[in-house]
Amino acid sequence: MRLAAKVSSLLIVVSFVTSLFATESSQRRPRAASKREYFTEDELDLIRDAQELNERVPVYIKLAERRLIFLGLMEKSEKEKEKEQKEREKRQKAKKKADDTRATANKVDADDASYLADFSSAELLRGYMEALDEITSNIDYAYSRKLDVRNSVEDLEKFARETLPFLEKFMPKTDSERIAMEEAIDKAKETEDQAKDALKTVPKTEKKRKEQ
Predict the structure, then answer these.
(1) CA distances from 117 to 19, 56, 99, 110 (A)
(2) Of 150, 169, 185, 189, which residue is 20 to 30 A from 134 by alpha carbon distance?
(3) 64 located within any domain
């Protein structure tokens, strides 16, 4: 992955990583993992639905957090619980109005993470890493188009910084889990450092941030 040249401190070149976007006008489906896709089809639908950078980054963060919660490494904040309660009530109202459930069929239930049981602990950690990679790729693309990426870089830095201690609490039971844990920790540290450096270069936005 890499960020644009002017954000040189956030630049990492990995030759096999391809862009997430097919054309200048539309975004590609997020890249698949080399051996296994670490996001489900329903999750990919959520990602595809979030077309703008300020919409897509929170989705990736949410999916990465969901994996750490499922692993028992972190808990939902009160704010997150309140938000999910509102989303649940909204879905229930939508179902009552709809003739069928097709409108909500492709949405990941904010309260049900049981589908993550299909992934091993190592795969859940790699899903976390993939989220960081994809956020950076999306920022790269937006920056290359001269779009405002400041808020997204700030969110990336904060997320990597705040989740690092949770990763360090993980107790691996197998070699594959140990390797995944070490790589996830390295990825979080690397991402945090690079994002901090990038914030020294990326101009601050004067627009007021919307509550997410």
Answers:
(1) 30, 24, 31, 15
(2) 169
(3) yes
Query: Residue 50 corresponds to which tokens in the numbers above?
Result: 């979030």
Residue 22, domain member (yes or no): no
Residues contacting 27, CB < 8 A, separation 6+: 20, 21, 48, 51, 141
> Higher pLDDT residue, 20 or 138?
138
Task: Name the nearest CA neighbour of 160 among 136, 143, 138.
Answer: 136
For 61-101, write each residue's pLDDT tens digit.
999 999 999 999 998 766 665 665 566 566 567 666 765 54
Do the domain assignments include residue 53?
A: yes
pTM metric for this prediction: 0.71
Domain extent for 49: 5-12+38-199
> What residue type is assigned to position 89 of the chain?
E
Domain count, the chain: 1
pLDDT of residue 27 exceeding 50, the answer is no
DSSP string over 160-203 = HHHHHHHHTT----SHHHHHHHHHHHHHHHHHHHHHHHHHTTSP
Residues in contact with 72: Cβ distance below 8 Å, sequence separation at least 6, in sequence order: none
Is residue 81 a part of any domain in this protein?
yes
- Is the pLDDT at 191 greater than 50? The verdict is yes
